[in-house]
Design brief:
The chain is α/β, with parallel strands linked by helices. It is built from 5 helices and 5 strands. The radius of gyration is 19 Å and the shape is globular.
């Protein structure tokens, strides 16, 4: 049976023309994860909203190339979903794409995303009904952010030891 892959993220984007009056005061910003749950929008700078993005596709296994080296797995047939609003609508669109691509019949569905609560809560709520193995993976860039935070705690901010440790851990992550 095939394996599938789903990636999700959110990005803050300016929506509409900036309002000079609103721009003069700042609302409080929340930490990195812009949405707290499946039905709550985070506060942001006036004129900005979170655009939620998803990709669903067939996972193509790595193949040996002419130099007899393994290439990386890739995404074959894929579909995208983009939504400006509550995460629930994005997950509804994403489930439709999963069914249209036949990924609901896959043995495994890899979900790659950052650590945002709205993503992992939505994955648990909506993908559990598929009856397939769902593997949640923290994306590389966010994993590296956590490595840097840990290196600062272990070795101190900006130290050579911290940089060397992170470089070693990044190699481990990639292999």
């Amino acid at each position: 049976q095939r394996s599938g892959s789903v990636s999700l993220d959110g990005v803050m984007a300016r929506i509409g023309k900036p309002d000079k009056e609103k721009a003069q005061f700042q609302t409080r910003l929340r930490p990195r994860n812009h949405t707290d749950g499946l039905g709550e929008e985070a506060e942001a700078k006036p004129g900005f909203k979170e655009v939620k993005l998803a990709l669903a596709g067939h996972l193509v296994p790595a193949k040996k190339n002419s130099a007899n080296k393994d290439e990386r797995p890739s995404i074959g047939i894929r579909k995208y979903a983009v939504h400006l609003g509550q995460p629930l609508a994005l997950f509804q669109m994403l489930l439709l794409l999963v069914y249209r691509l036949g990924l609901h019949q896959a043995k495994t569905l890899l979900v790659i995303a950052d650590g945002a609560h709205w993503i992992w809560a939505g994955v648990k709520e909506h993908f559990a009904s598929l009856g397939i193995q769902v593997v949640e993976i923290l994306d590389y860039w966010h994993a590296v952010e956590h490595l840097w935070a840990l290196s600062r705690a272990l070795y101190g901010q900006g130290t050579q030891a911290a940089s060397v440790w992170v470089a070693t851990q990044k190699r481990h992550l990639l292999h």
